[in-house]
Structures are given as structure tokens and as C-alpha cells.
Amino acid sequence: MQWEVVIGLETHAQLATRSKIFSGSSTAFGASPNTQASPVDLALPGVLPVMNRKAVECAIRLGLAVGGAVAPRSVFARKNYFYPDLPKGYQISQFEIPVVLGGSVDVVWEQDGQPASRTVRLTRAHLEEDAGKSLHEDFHGMSGIDLNRAGTPLLEIVTEPDMRSSREAVAYARTLHALVMWLGICDGNMQEGSFRCDANVSVRPVGQEAYGTRCEIKNLNSFRFLERAIDFEVRRQIELIEDGGRVVQETRLYDPDRDETRSMRSKEDAQDYRYFPDPDLPALAIDAAWIESVKASLPELPKAIRGRLESQYSLSSYDATVLTSSREMAEYFERAAAALAALNPPADAPARQAQGKLLANWMMADLAGALNRDGLDIAAAPVRPAQLARLAARILDGTISGKIAKDLFAALWQAPGAADEAVDQEIDARGLRQISDPNALEALVAAVLEANPRSVEEFRAGKEKAFNALVGQVMKASRGKANPQAVNDLLRSRLAG
Fold it and tell me: In sequence order, which residues have a C-beta less than 8 Å from that of residue 17 and are 6 or more positions away?
């Protein structure tokens, strides 16, 4: 039987406020346990929660960015349950009327070597407070409770069950992660718990409309864990059903050490919490003027920049998505493109597109590879946009080959702070200028043809590999400095004679 995977994600984004959602307590990470929990956070008798205006503005920014509807009136409720790290016995959240309804996120990923895309629908985004944290280390078989996180402002973003693979789910999570950081509403630090994903996973026979029984997977604090947990859970559910068993709706924990999910607690019903209106908090009122004020402060959004890159440079949707995976990445590309156009003004649209594609390839391959190898953010890249632009300009005007450009890039990477003109200085100092003179190339080609008669015979017999071997010999003889295109043209001309 063929199975279809159905995935929905619930994401908790910690909002970028200096104080908690209903109190003035600090949200700074790393404080000593229980030093940032106020009476309001713990709901001690005689205290009242007061809404954090900045948290509301963060929610409005997200709603506008995803095309959702910002509710003019939303309501807070007490979500009643008991965990050791929630001593007051309830969490203030939104249930019936959330602050944001609907919206969508466009997702692009690579599947089987080909770009794929989907628009993931959002159900809602609602404001809520975080609970405390249970600590299980260094307590000799007991648990400690740290209530510093109690009251930390969260925006829970819930999708429709639109995703059909773990790769797609990861692509959505990465896109949302980039978006909340782009908007400045969340720092995105997954190690510190600022961005956390829960995955709802089920399977059903291909063609069946009814959903299967879903399980919720928690403890997913990295994109790699998200993908591995979903893949394991899908296999578990399929094997269970095919062996005659039945999937039970439950919450499961992902164990990264054993690469498996295990049962935490059962869920008898989809709504297994009790909600009551919070008597201490009035309805949250957001008027049109407030929304317009927040809208005016929004940066240009990734979707708009992607559209511009696709239209100006004929980049694929996948390439444009990669280049807008962060504001810093998008800014780097646009600064490099502007510098390249200044150095080598494009004569027409195809020339401008060639420039954009060359820069995109360099950023997604060489630059991204160097950043990953050294564990750097693009803002800390030793090679600046203007330097990459100059390197690209020298490739386009035939001064250097792509191979030599890679060597120069590596040298620039090891020389942070070098002047933009360092590219040209290195080319001259090392004698790297490409050989394009017809007479010089003619002599090289003639010598290689004379020294490789067998390869000549094989090419004339129809073996294209022999031609590539001859090109390689010419490039070797020129120490990589011969113009590859000129070599190709000259060789074919000589071999046709």
C-alpha cells in the first residue's frame, strides 16, 4: 500500500521584548534560576497582569507579513493544566479569538535534485506566556524548577496540515525562522529556546481524504532533529498499521540520542485542555490606526525582494529564495550586484541577468561553503560584497578564469580588511591574467595537438571525451591561464580542418 504523509507544525517564537508579556520582569537569557520570576508571573494573590504593548506589535508585524487578518478584538483565556513548572495551574493564552487569523507562507525546497514549492496555509497565530522549565541534571534523581521563563512572551504560529514530507516541513520551518528574524520580532536562537517547533504527524493511504490519527512530537530544537523525528514517526506509524495495529493519538518526545520518538502522554481528545476567559485581562483592542502605524515600520519583505530578483536577474524561484533566506544575505547580494554593475555596466537585460546569475552562483556555492566551514554568519564574511563584485567583473571581462577566481577568493578569505582593489593587485602580483591573445593560444594549441596524436584520432572517430582531454592539456600547458572559451573555439576549428 502507498502512504501519504500529512504534517502540520506549531511553532513557538519568543518575542523580542525586554520584559515579559504581563509583567516588567526581564526576559534576558542566562540568569540564575528563579531570579527573574515576579509575583505577576506566578499569579500570586493580589496581582494583576498588564499587556506588553511591544508583544502585540510583534504579533501585528507577523500578521501583516503573512497576509493574515489582524483581529480588531482578541481575547485571552486561562489554559488549565498542571505541570511541575507551572505552579499556578494555568497558562494565559488565546483560544477562541486569536490575534491573527489565516495567512500563508511560500516555501521552496529541493526534492530529488529539482526545486519544489508549496504555499503553506496558516490557521492562526496567538499570543501566550511561556511556562517555567524543569531541570533534570545535577539533582541526583530529582528535578529542579526554574521559573525564569514563566511569563516570557510567545507567539504560537499554527499551520494547516498542508505539508507532505519532512523536507517540506523543514523548508517551512526555515522560511518561518528567517521571516521572524527578518521582521525583528524574534532572535531565532533555537539553542536558547527562542524558536521551537512541534510537529503533528499522521499517515493515510494515497487517495484517502480523511486524515489518519495524528501524533504530536515535541523536543525539536533544531531543523535536523525536526527532519529526523518526522521520518522516524512516519516509519513507526506505517509499520504499526501494516502489522495490524492502530495509531493512538498522543504526545511523543523525540530522543536525539536514540533517534526515535517515544510516548509522553496520551490525548483522549483533540482538545485536551480546559479554557476559561481570563477575568483579569480585558479584550485586546487593535484599531486600524495602530495596524497602519506598524505597517509603515515594516522592512521590505522577502517575498517582494524575491520577486524583484526573479524579474531583474531571471533567477529561479529556488535561487531567489536562498538569497533572501536572511536580510543580511539579501543585502549582501544587492550590494554586490550594484557594485558589479558600476564596474561593468550591463549593456542590456541579458547582460544584467548574466551578472546576477554569476553572483548568485558564487554566493550559494563558494561563499556559503566558506561560511559553513568556518561557522560564520554572512555579516562576518571576510570577503565583502564589493570584493566579490570585482572578482565577478574580472571573470566576465575575461581577465581571469573561474578556476583562478576560486584561488583568489580563498586568498581574500584569508585577508580580512583588504582593500577592494586587492583583487586586481593580486592578479597582477601573481601574473594571473588570462591568456586571450590569439597568437599565444595558437602556439599552445598547436603544441598540444602535435604531442597528442592519439587523442586527435579518437576525437575524429567520434569520441567527445578526447576533445575534453585536449582542452585539459592546453589548460595544463598554460598553467590554467588560457581563456577556456577561446581554447574550445580554436581547438574545434583546428580539428575540423
Answer: 27, 52, 54, 55, 58, 153
Rounded CA separation 474/449 (Å): 9
Would you state the pLDDT for residue 445? Answer: 84
Task: For the full predicted model, state whether its pTM sits above 0.90.
Answer: no
Q: Would residue 310 be called left, alpha or beta, if left means φ above 0 and alpha means ψ between -120 and 50 degrees?
A: alpha
Phi, psi of 414 (to 5 degrees): -90, 5
Q: Does residue 11 contact residue 19 with C-beta atoms inside 8 Å?
A: no
In degrees rounded to 5, what are phi and psi of residue 464?
-65, -30
With both helix axes pointing from N to C terminus, report the angle between 438-451 and 484-496 in degrees, rounded to the nearest 10: 60
State how far the Cα of 74 lies from the Cα of 14, in Å rounded to an integer.
20
Dist. CA 129–CA 157, nearest whole Å: 14
Whole-angstrom Cα distance, residue 120 to residue 164? 11
Assign 74 to helix, strand or coil: strand
CB neighbour list of residue 199: distance below 8 Å, 6 or more residues apart: 7, 8, 9, 10, 169, 216, 217, 220, 226, 229, 230, 233
Q: Provide the pairing of β-strand 90-93 with 104-111.
A: unpaired
- What is residue 342's three-state secondary structure? helix
Q: What are the CA-CA distances from residue 368 to residues 176, 317, 362, 364 (Å)? A: 20, 18, 8, 5
The bridge status of strand 153-159 relative to strand 3-14 is antiparallel
Exposed / middle / buried, residue 201 (Cβ in 10 Å: 0-12, 13-18, 19+): buried
pLDDT at 397 over 90: no
pLDDT at 270 over 80: no
Reduced to 3 states (helix: H, G, I; strand: E, B; else coil), residue 186 is coil
- Residue 388 has a CB neighbour count (10 Å cut-off) of 29
Nearest of 151, 94, 152, 153 to residue 124 by alpha carbon? 94
The closest of 364, 272, 266 to 316, measured between CA atoms, is 364
Here the cell at position 74 is: 482578541
pLDDT band at 246 (very low <50, low <70, confident <90, very high): very high
3-state secondary structure of 364: helix
Instruction: Residue 223: name the closest of 253, 201, 195 by CA.
Output: 195
Q: For residues 77 and 43, is the Cβ–Cβ distance under 8 A?
A: no
- Torsions phi, psi for 197 (to 5 deg): -115, 135
Cell of 350: 541579458
Distance, in Å, from the CA atom of 254 to the CA atom of 57, rounded to the nearest integer, reads: 33
> How far does the chain reach from its first CA to its final CA, in angstroms?
61
Mean pLDDT value across the chain: 92
